[in-house]
């Protein structure tokens, strides 16, 4: 099992210094999410081949590996120009992963929930172009349902991934999305079975509680989604239940600490998460 850190709260640390910082925090793996100097949100990668080589050398010097790259592009967007651009960005990102020696990438379904059918059609069109590239480079892809994507429910996401019918396309369960994707971690984990290869760990409050009045959003009826990525114990995700389900499933994939809420204490939060993940794993082994 790999325990990784999503260093988004540390994104202002210079890229070539990041591996040493992650090692100081007690992690052996990085899940590299969007950065302005590497692969930014929804735009073409910014990193050049020379920097990729330097980054790989820095990783080796720190004794840290990249468990996965996590790019986010509009590859299922209803707009065809956006989709074609996203495919171009994906192809460069896959090459970067291959040059780093990384064999796993993660992303979201993207698209628009109010245009789910159109978005799914765009998703399949992008997959047809990209799956051969993933295969050629020997890179696996894990997908997660996300609030405001064309697929938000965990069971529906597993069904779609099964429909892709490819041994290297798998499912990611994101704990801070628990209350958007079905609020049923044990059921979704069991339903996913061997498709489950990655888990994101952070806490969140149940936005559906108090008759849907946990958060007051204006104007009334807005389709906006709200969730957090908090330290374990700061929200309402049942992590004891989640880790029991993972243990019962025999999960042996990647667990990633992905807290985004506390940039002012990013290092303390990252250390706290590493300690708590270890404690939950030890409790299941005892």
Task: Describe the protein.
This protein is α/β, with parallel strands linked by helices and 286 residues long. Helix content is 41%, strand content 14%. The chain contains 9 helices and 8 strands. An 8-stranded parallel β-sheet has the order 3-2-1-8-7-6-5-4. α3 runs parallel beside α4 and α6 packs parallel to α8. The protein is globular. The model has no long low-confidence stretch (mean pLDDT 95).
Task: Supply the number of helical segments.
Answer: 9
- CA(first)-CA(last) distance: 17 Å
Total E-strand runs: 8
Largest sheet: 8 strands, parallel
The computed structural class is alpha/beta
How much beta, percentage-wise? 5-15%
Mean pLDDT reading: 95
Record the strand order, biggest sheet: 3-2-1-8-7-6-5-4
* Poorly predicted segments: none
**Roughly how much helix do the residues carry, as a percent range?**
40-55%
Rg over C-alpha atoms, rounded to the nearest angstrom:
18 Å
Which overall shape is indicated by the principal axes computed on the Cα atoms?
A: globular
What is the H-and-E element order?
EHEHEHEHEHEHEHHEH
């Amino acid at each position: 099992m790999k325990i990784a850190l999503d260093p988004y709260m540390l994104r202002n640390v210079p890229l070539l210094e990041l591996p040493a910082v992650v090692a100081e925090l007690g992690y052996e793996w990085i899940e590299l999410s969007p950065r302005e100097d590497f692969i930014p949100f929804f735009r073409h990668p910014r990193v050049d081949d020379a920097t990729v080589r330097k980054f790989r050398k820095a990783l080796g010097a720190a004794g840290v590996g990249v468990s996965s790259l996590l790019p986010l592009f509009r590859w299922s967007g209803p707009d065809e120009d956006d989709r074609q651009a996203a495919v171009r960005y994906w192809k460069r990102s896959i090459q970067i992963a291959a040059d780093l020696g990384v064999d796993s990438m993660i992303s979201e379904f993207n698209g628009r929930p109010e245009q789910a059918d159109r978005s799914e059609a765009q998703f399949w069109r992008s997959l047809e172009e990209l799956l051969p590239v993933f295969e050629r480079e020997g890179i696996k892809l894990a997908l997660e349902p996300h609030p405001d994507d064309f697929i938000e429910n965990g069971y529906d996401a597993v069904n779609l991934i099964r429909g892709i019918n490819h041994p290297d396309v798998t499912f990611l369960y994101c704990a801070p999305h628990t209350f958007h994707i079905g609020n049923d971690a044990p059921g979704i984990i069991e339903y996913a079975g061997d498709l489950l290869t990655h888990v994101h760990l952070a806490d969140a409050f149940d936005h559906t509680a108090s008759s849907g009045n946990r958060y007051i959003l204006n104007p009334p009826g807005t389709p906006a989604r709200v969730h957090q990525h908090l330290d374990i114990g700061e929200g309402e995700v049942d992590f004891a239940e989640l880790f029991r389900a993972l243990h019962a499933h025999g999960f042996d994939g990647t667990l990633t600490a992905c807290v985004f809420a506390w940039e002012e204490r990013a290092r303390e939060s990252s250390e706290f998460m590493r300690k708590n993940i270890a404690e939950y794993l030890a409790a299941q082994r005892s």
